Amino acid sequence: MAKRGRKYYVVWEGHRTGVFETWEECIIATKGYAGAKYKSFESSVEAIEAFRGDYKDYIKKTTSKKGTKPSAPPKNAPIRKDSISVDAACSGNPGLMEYRGVITTTGEQIFIQGPFKHGTNNIGEFLALVHGLALLKNHGKHDTPIYSDSKIAIGWVAKKKCNTKIEENPDTEILFKLIDRAEKWLKANTWTNPILKWETKKWGEIPADFGRK
Questions:
Q1: What is the pLDDT of residues 33-91, one digit of tens each?
Q2: How far apart are CA 152 and CA 160, in angstroms?
């Protein structure tokens, strides 16, 4: 989900530790570090206090070599047990963006891509859906559903077109190559996997959420 307002990032365990003022700095400090411990805060005072304390008092989700593992989905959600869920995270609009997919019932991460410069949340959601569809097709799982909390991205996939208004420039060159590849895949392939809308207001955050709000 997109970040709202300014945040401060505490890294308790990573390549570097401390309080960082941008998500970019946090990414550098934690990406590729097994078991990294980090969390965002609304103010510098909260962040400094948290950094001086124990991360266990602030992080309610466990981490692993594969990244943040969300808690189990709420019991009231009509979850398809054989499904996967996808989500994107973006620092700003546009801003540094990444996306991932997880097994819905366990939160186990099955793919993650990024970060990419000057992306948007909707672009990330679109790429995550196509990534998930291609992965399932390659594994012969033609009936496995995919959950997404983005109506826009689901619509883009249905139309086989990423209808973003972001400009193509040197900073977005790599991202547009991925978009072009995703659109070509959609046009060249067929699939029967149901793409289902995750109802956040009823069920809580989607299991693939990055947990940085």
A1: 767 788 888 888 888 888 888 887 876 543 333 444 444 555 666 677 789 999 998 87
A2: 12
- Whole-angstrom CA distances from 13 to 33, 91, 98 are 8, 21, 21
Does the model's pTM come out above 0.70? no
Are residues 70 and 35 in contact, defined by beta-carbon separation less than 8 angstroms?
Answer: no
Give the max Cα distance, the chain: 53
